UniProtKB/TrEMBL annotation:
This is Imidazolonepropionase. Catalyzes the hydrolytic cleavage of the carbon-nitrogen bond in imidazolone-5-propanoate to yield N-formimidoyl-L-glutamate. It is the third step in the universal histidine degradation pathway. Pfam families: Amidohydro_1 (PF01979). 4-imidazolone-5-propanoate binds at R116, Y174, H201, Q271, S347. Belongs to the metallo-dependent hydrolases superfamily. HutI family. Its main location: cytoplasm. Pathway: Amino-acid degradation; L-histidine degradation into L-glutamate; N-formimidoyl-L-glutamate from L-histidine: step 3/3. Zn(2+) binds at H107, H109, H268, D342. Its cofactor is Zn(2+); Fe(3+). It is an enzyme of class 3 (hydrolase). It comes from the Bacteria. It catalyses: 4-imidazolone-5-propanoate + H2O = N-formimidoyl-L-glutamate. It comes from Agromyces marinus. Residues 58-82 are annotated as: Disordered.
Amino acid sequence: MTDNGAVRRMLLTNIGELVTNDPGDDREGDELGIVRDAAVLIEDGRVAWVGPAVHAPSGAAATAGDAARHEREDRREGEEHRAAWDADVEIVDLGGRAVIPGFVDSHTHLVFGGDRADEFAARMAGRAYEAGGIRSTVSATRGATDDELRARLAGFLAELRRQGTTTFEVKTGYGLSVTDEARLARLAAEVTDEVTFLGAHVVPFEFREPDGPGADAYVDLVVGEMLAACAPHSRWVDAFCERGAFTAEQSRRVLEAGRAVGLGVRVHGNQLGEGPGVRLAVELDAASVDHCTYLSDEDVAALAGSSTVATLLPGVEFSTRQPYPDARRLIDAGVTVALASDCNPGSSFTSSMPFCIAVAVREMGMTPAEAVWASTAGGAAALRRTDVGALRVGARADFAVLDAPSHVHVAYRPGVPLIAETWKDGVRVA
Ligand code: NIG
Ligand code: FE
């Protein structure tokens, strides 16, 4: 609504290629639901109409200069069309560029202190990636003030927007004490509704045997006091079910406890080797199981028969020099695949979804169209959201304008800043 209570209307016109992710009768045959020479009518931050500009309810104003002529045409076409114009439609001419839904980054770890550039450099000199590096970020995070972490988050938020991301999830997991995990959940909730409680990231120093009480005692804390402190700020619960982190039984305890207090389930699994993560995720009807780098045929079959999304994180394999996950195998088996950044200081310090798309296309067997879908509609599926990830009537008007004529260029021009504009809820934010 505007200040005087009128509906705020805006017509985006002159869109050379519009990716809707909504295959319709008048759309090209793939899942991207492409409309050429398109227009989108936005009302109060939501998509009110989408289609070829010549059929736009405003009278098909292809450019701002055509507005007056089309207004006259509209006025002959009846009450319904007049309504759109009567309310001061703002015309936005996108100059023939491509528009895609805003990226939905369904997996990040953006609340942390410090960085691990030295660890990255050592890895590039031949050292292997180990989950244990997480503990060095835990020390840096515990030592950071709320305002330091907030400033860091604000910087990442600006970075995300510049790169076309309009919805993002943030996990806790670098606090690993009741006070610090609750603090991270609270700070994450200041920037997103998609907060995930990841107290079960690794066992912190003070619990590790032989001097500490051990992993099971830590899990007792996670499912008790820590969950109670974090759940009010969180939508999801997650566990790192992997060698060096938590067993299937420990992960199950955490995930079931989270679910019992109303949190949705997601799992980190099959990152460093085959293991029980994927099957546990499917058994618990998790919204997503993330990494999926090492999968058995049984894992793939289990995912294909489930509503659990496989979220692949190309930045991790890029930065750890592990083999990339096989997206082609999953898609061909009928699994829903999402792409996400996993932005964190250890295994993947990129917040760039265009980078992830380029790597997924080059290294993981995805087509450019599949990779764009996986980073928008796929991410929305991984967060079980229907209001983002597609430009269909009723959805949020979240989108990116590309400095390019088609979505293919995102993968075709790696490293080039093609995101010209980012819009969220019908407002330009970058
Ligand atoms: O998703 N896999 C576990 N957690 C992160 C890594 C975090 C870190 O290395 O700090 C991930 O890759
Ligand atoms: Fe992660």
